[in-house]
Specification:
Elements: E1 6-10, H1 14-26, E2 30-34, H2 37-46, E3 51-55, H3 63-73, E4 78-83, H4 88-96, E5 101-104, H5 109-135, H6 150-162, E6 169-172, H7 179-188, E7 197-201, H8 207-215, H9 232-235, E8 240-244, H10 251-263, E9 265-267, E10 274-276, E11 280-285, H11 289-294, H12 300-306, E12 309-312, H13 322-338, E13 343-344, H14 346-354, H15 360-374, E14 379-380, H16 387-395, H17 409-423, H18 428-435, H19 439-448
Parallel strand pairs: 1-2, 1-3, 3-4, 4-5, 6-11, 6-12, 7-8, 8-11, 13-14
Antiparallel strand pairs: 9-10
Helix pairs in contact: 2-3, 10-12, 13-15, 14-16, 17-18, 18-19
């Protein structure tokens, strides 16, 4: 394979684990090992691999039971079963339960390698399907934006000015503040509104896959490239492409992206002929790109090219009365979904006003959904709100001090990541979803804060 996979090898035979793990590492894979189903599930809760090689016969809890847990809690992980000759029927049952494939012991290394390559190809196809599903989501109308605070109205005035233009726009703001919604609104106000709106989550894809997704590839350009595939820039032709989390792309991709922005021309991965497209580019980030430029992490020429116009999405805590308006708006939408007639009580509204909303609008939406679901009557009380909002209500009006001083943004981020990990019982995938970021982005932050195991 061109790029190694991250693999968890689960087998109770220590000699087999040792030999197979070493052979897989020699082939370029990153390998962790576990001797039981319980140990494997615990490992997955902390770090999610791409592939699990899972023995059917394990002491205590068997492999089939472990497979069901993995498929339920980690649907993105591909599982390849390891089985003896006498367990073929059980292996076939495992396929019905969601395993990708099985290999009969003793396991020839070339057979394992072939299965791993195919499993990685299926992961790539699933990710592409997810990208395309997001890509053609209809743009939102301005009526779905709720707010009357000065900060919100200032942003909306700028959006309505830049929307009809064809300029490149950089949308900045904290995680969960609504950057993708703003991008959709800009697209809907443009002459391209009836053309594709293609979303690319730059942080969610590995570098090699990101290049292929953006620019397409030629048949045979790498293992698994069985036919020529158009890139998402081609899918977005005459429409808009939205590059979310653009601060996460590598220097190599930055070079190719700059060329597309300057010339509207690119080449497929492995190709020689030029492809010309007519695409408007919108980009978003929650990172300080100017600081990244000064550190040499982001190209200065690309930064100035994408930030022709910058729209800053204000954090929810700075939007004053919008918190109450948005909360009521979300409750109305949820009432329609659940066929209920619930309203926010005075105590709940007061708790919402005092909370600092580190997760911004996304956090508020999830809080309202939780409250509507657990509220048995017609009035949503403070006790129906998530515990983090109830607990943070008193301290929320003022950030906690660190040794007599205000905490830095780095310290606040560290505290918030720890809270998300605690709330998800250490499951990084779930913690990333709570934080509203990709797992790749979370792993990077864990390394920055030295929280990785």
């Amino acid at each position: 394979m061109k790029n190694g996979a991250s693999i968890l090898l689960v087998d109770d035979d220590s000699a087999f684990r040792h030999v197979m793990a070493n052979e897989l590492r020699r082939l370029g894979h990153e390998v962790a090992a576990a001797g039981s189903a319980e140990e494997a599930v615990a490992h997955l809760a902390g770090q999610e691999p791409e592939i699990v090689l899972l023995d059917l016969r394990l002491p205590g809890r068997d492999g089939l039971s472990a497979l069901k847990t993995i498929r339920a809690e980690h649907p993105a992980v591909e599982v390849i079963m390891l089985t003896g000759h006498g367990s073929i029927d059980t292996a076939i049952e495992s396929i019905r339960e969601g395993a990708f494939d099985y290999v009969t012991k003793p396991c020839p290394l070339d057979e394992i390698e072939i299965r791993v390559e195919r499993a990685m190809e299926r992961r790539a196809l699933r990710q592409r399907a997810s990208l395309l599903e997001r890509a053609l989501t209809p743009a939102v109308a301005s009526g779905s934006f709720v707010g009357d605070s000065p900060e919100f109205e200032r942003m909306m005035r700028l959006v309505k000015l830049v929307g009809p233009s064809d300029s490149t726009v950089l949308i900045t703001g904290e995680t969960g503040s609504g950057k993708e919604q703003v991008a959709k609104l800009i697209h809907s106000l443009s002459a391209r509104a009836k053309k594709p709106f293609v979303v690319v989550d730059c942080a969610a894809l590995q570098e090699s896959l990101l290049q292929s997704e953006l620019f397409g590839h030629e048949r045979g350009s790498f293992t698994g490239a069985e036919k020529t595939k158009p890139g998402l820039f081609e899918v977005a032709h005459e429409g808009t492409i939205f590059l979310d989390e653009i601060g996460e792309i590598s220097p190599a991709t930055q070079v190719n992206l700059l060329r597309v922005l300057d010339t509207s021309v690119f080449r497929h991965v492995g190709g020689t002929s030029e492809v010309r497209v007519n695409v408007r580019v919108l980009a978003a980030t929650n990172r300080d790109l100017r600081a990244m430029v000064s550190k040499g992490l982001f190209r200065e020429d690309l930064f100035y090219r994408i930030s022709t116009i910058t729209v800053e999405v204000p954090p929810l805590r700075e939007r004053g009365s919008d918190i109450e308006r948005l909360a009521c708006h979300f409750v109305e939408r949820l009432n329609e979904r659940y066929n209920s007639n619930k309203v926010l009580g005075v105590g709940a509204l007061e708790a919402l006003r005092r909370h600092r909303w580190p997760g911004n609008v996304r956090e508020l939406l999830h809080a309202m959904e939780a409250a509507v679901v657990v509220c048995e009557g017609d009035e949503i009380l403070a006790e129906h709100l998530p515990e983090s909002i109830r607990q943070g209500a008193t301290a929320g009006a003022k950030p906690p001090a660190c040794e007599g001083r205000l905490p830095t943004l780095m310290e606040l981020e560290l505290t918030h990541i720890r809270r998300a990990l605690e709330a998800s019982n250490g499951r990084r995938g779930q913690a990333a979803r709570l934080l509203g970021i990709s797992e790749r982005n979370l792993y990077r932050k864990l390394k920055e804060h030295r929280l990785e195991e």
